Amino acid sequence: MLAGAFGWLGRHGKAVLAAGIFLGLALPPLAELLRPLLTPSVVALLALTFLRMDWATVAGHLRRPLPAFLLIVWLLIASPALVALATRIAGLPAGLAEAMLLWAASPPLIAAPSIAVLLGLDGALALVGTAVATFAMLLTLPPLVLLLAGIDLGLDPGQLLLRLALLTFGALAMALAVRRLAGSAAIAAHPERIDGAIVLTLLLFAIAAMDGITAEAFAEPLRVAGFIAAAFAANLSFQALGAAAFARLPRRTALALGITSGNRNLAILVGSLGASVPPDVFLYFAVGQLPIYLLPGLLAPIYRRLAGTQPRR
């Protein structure tokens, strides 16, 4: 029965995840109850995704490292530089500007390559970039945001690096342990069960991420609306910029890299900081789930037309 439930979740993931956000907004006590699960769900999600990841594909692309290297530079160095410049020119409030910079300095959402594949795009290079950037972020994010940008997270670069490393490598160790116990053949034979577990974890994560957002929206509607607008604008802008930056690659690959560029995994930083995450950063992280969960469905016809493909089923 449990295997069947996970399989059902894997097949109906998009609807379940969209429901999670609205459940968290509509039922604030439930979001508050699940808030302590936020960091564990980030670790579990990373572990499950590492377990599901095709590491042979990653290794194959790393034999031709230049495209992956350029992608990492774009994701972790050029992107935050562009956001820092744009927020300064726009004169955004300091808290929002810092949150957006942290978002841009974060690695891609670990599920972004899968979203690209579902839209009929070529997600192989996006998968490589996501995997490498998740670990390269340990070297780029702490000095970038704490030393160069001067953002005060209450930690020195060494402490932040340690927290990020414990979360990331802890998740990798969990994935390797499960693979060793279950066996690679069993994992390969039942991918839908892993997908179901990922969806369940994302559901808990989405509800927990909405803690306090409903009350804040009623108390300061214009401020929350501004954060929502900024989250959608950043996601859409970097989808376009990412695709344009790699326009010389085949179109299906460039569009997949656009999706990867616009969907960032700020949850890793939020999970590492725990209760000490600054309020503006948590608000941006929370409302940032809206474009992550809603835009793929809304933009699917556009991506399919641009790529000339049909979605995978």
Structure description:
The chain has helices spanning 2-11, 13-26, 28-34, 38-52, 55-62, 65-90, 94-105, 112-118, 124-148, 157-182, 184-189, 191-209, 213-219, 221-245, 251-262, 267-273, 279-287, 289-307. It is mainly α. It has a single domain (2-307), classed as Na+/H+ antiporter like fold (Up-down Bundle), CATH 1.20.1530.20. α1 packs across α12 (191-209), α6 (65-90) runs antiparallel to α7 and α10 (157-182) packs across α16. The longest helix has 26 residues, at 65-90. It is globular and about 50 Å long.
**Mean pLDDT rating:** 85
Distance separating the two termini = 24 Å
The CATH topology is Na+/H+ antiporter like fold
The ordered string of helix (H) and strand (E) elements is: HHHHHHHHHHHHHHHHHH
Task: Classify the beta-strand content into a percent band.
Answer: under 5%
Helix content: over 70%
Number of helices: 18
Low-pLDDT parts are none
The assigned structural class equals mainly alpha
